[in-house]
Amino acid sequence: MSSPIGRRSFLKTGLAAGAVAALPAGTERAVQAAAQAPAIRKGGPRPVVIASANGHRFKNGGTLTCVAQAFDLMVKDTDVLHALITGVNIVELDPEDDSVGYGGLPNAEGVVQLDSCCMHGPRKRAGGVACLEGVRTPSKVARAVMQHTDHHLLVGQGAQDFARRMGFTVEVDLNTEHSRKLWLEWKRRVDPEHWLDPDKRADAGFRAGMEMVREGLIDSEHYYGTINCNGVNAKGEVCGVTTTSGLAWKIPGRVGDSPILGAGLYVDNAVGAAGSTGRGEANLYGLSSFLIVELMRRGMKPKDAGMEALRRIQAATVEKRLLNARGLPNFGVSFYVLGADGEHAGVSMYASTYAVCDEQGPRILPTEALFPGKAGE
Ligand code: GLY
C-alpha cells in the first residue's frame, strides 16, 4: 500500500478548506474527519459510503445522516461494517422513516416484521435475519448472527429468541402512531367486509397500497422501502448492510430481498458491493446484487453492471398485473453499486436519487434511470 497523506494535502485534493464552512450540516464534520483520517492513503481506493436516498435524509434528532455518520467513523479507521451499521441504525431508530426499523410500515395484520443482512468483505462473513419482530435495529441482530453463529440467516421466532438471548431489547410493538394510522387506513380499504376471495383480496391489497401512494399518503419509495448502505475505506475493505420493514402490508411471514445474500446485498472484497431497494420479488427472481458484483468482476463499471441487472428484471417481468400502460414494470427497483476502487453508481428503473458521502461531504445524487417517466405511467 502507498503512503498516508497529510491533512493539508487531503483537503487540497478533496474539498477546498475555505468551502467547508459553507456546506450543509453534517458535511463539515465528515470532511474534517476525512482530513484527519490516518486511513487515507495516496493511491489507495477513494473512501466512500453510498446508500439509498434515505441514507442522507433522516437524523433521528442528531446532527448526522447515515452516510455522514458512517463515513465519519470509517475514515477514523473504524471497521467498515461497524461504521455502516452505526449509520443505518440512525434510520432504523428514526420513527420518521416508515420503511425501516422502528415505525416501519407493518404487515397485513399490523405487526412490524423486519429483515436485514450484512456482509463483511475482508472477513468473508455474513449474517441475516428475516421476519424479526420487536427489535428496532435488525441490522445489529444480523451482525450478531454473523459474529456469534455458524449460520447466515435466522427467521421469525428463532431470530427473536436469538436476539433476546444476545441481550437485545425485545418490544411488544414497533408501530408508531403514524404507521398504525396508515395500516388502519389500508385495512379499511382492503377488508371492509372482513374477508374476500384470496385472489381478489391480494389484488385489492396491491391496488389499495398503490392508491395510497398516488394520494401521497405513503412515499412511493417507502412502499417497498429499505435502506442499503455500502462503503469502502482507503485500505480497500468493502462492506455492506441492508435493513427494512419490507413491503407495506405484506402477508405475515413474507420475506423480500433485503435479508437474502445475493439479492438485497452482495459484497466481494476484491470486486465491490451492490444492494437494493424496491420490489423485492423482482430482485429475488434474479439475485441481482450477486449478478451486479459478478458483472463487475468481469470488468463492467458499476453503472453498466447495475443497468444490466435492471434490464434483466424488465425481461423477467411479463405478468400483466406488473406492467404499466407502456408495457414496462409498474414498480421501482434501485441498486446502489460500489466498486472496490470507490467508483459508484445509483441505478433505478425510473428516476430516483441516492446518497453519497466522500471527501466532498454527504449529498444526494440522481440515479441513472433505465426508463423515463414514472412506474405508474
Ligand atoms: N426491498 C424490500 C422488500 O421488498 O422487502
Describe this structure in words.
This protein has 377 residues and is an alpha+beta fold. 35% of the residues lie in helices and 19% in strands. Among the domains are: 1-38; 48-176 and 217-260 and 348-369, no CATH class. The strands form two sheets. An eight-stranded mixed β-sheet has the order 4-3-2-6-5-1-11-12. A five-stranded mixed β-sheet has the order 7-8-9-10-13. The model is unreliable at 1-25 and 37-41 (pLDDT under 50). It binds glycine (GLY). Glycine binds at residues 224, 226, 244, 246-247, 256-258, 277-280.
Brief rundown of the structure:
With about 375 residues, the chain is α+β, with helices and mostly antiparallel strands. Helices cover about 35% and strands about 20% of the residues.
Features:
alpha+beta; 35% helix; single chain; eight-stranded mixed β-sheet; globular; 377 residues; five-stranded mixed β-sheet; binds glycine; 13 helices
Mean pLDDT: 88
Q: For this entry, what is the oligomeric state of its chains?
A: single chain
Helix run count: 13
Distance between the termini: 50 Å
Helical content band: 25-40%
Give the overall form.
globular
Low-pLDDT residue spans: 1-25, 37-41
**Order of strands, widest sheet:** 4-3-2-6-5-1-11-12
Largest beta-sheet characterization: 8 strands, mixed
Give the C-alpha Rg: 20 Å
Q: Write down how many β-strands occur, each being a DSSP E stretch of 2 or more residues.
A: 13
Query: From N to C, what is the helix and strand string?
Result: HHHEHHEEHEHHHHEEEEHHHEEEEE
- What would you call the structural class? alpha+beta
Topology:
Blueprint: H1 7-13, H2 17-20, H3 27-36, E1 48-52, H4 66-74, H5 80-93, E2 114-120, E3 125-132, H6 138-148, E4 154-155, H7 156-165, H8 177-190, H9 198-214, H10 220-223, E5 226-232, E6 238-244, E7 265-268, E8 272-278, H11 280-286, H12 288-297, H13 302-316, E9 333-339, E10 344-348, E11 353-358, E12 361-366, E13 368-369
Parallel strand pairs: 3-4, 10-13
Antiparallel strand pairs: 1-5, 1-11, 2-3, 2-6, 5-6, 7-8, 8-9, 9-10, 11-12
Helix pairs in contact: 1-3, 3-4, 4-5, 11-13, 12-13
This protein binds glycine.
Glycine binds at residues 224, 226, 244, 246-247, 256-258, 277-280.
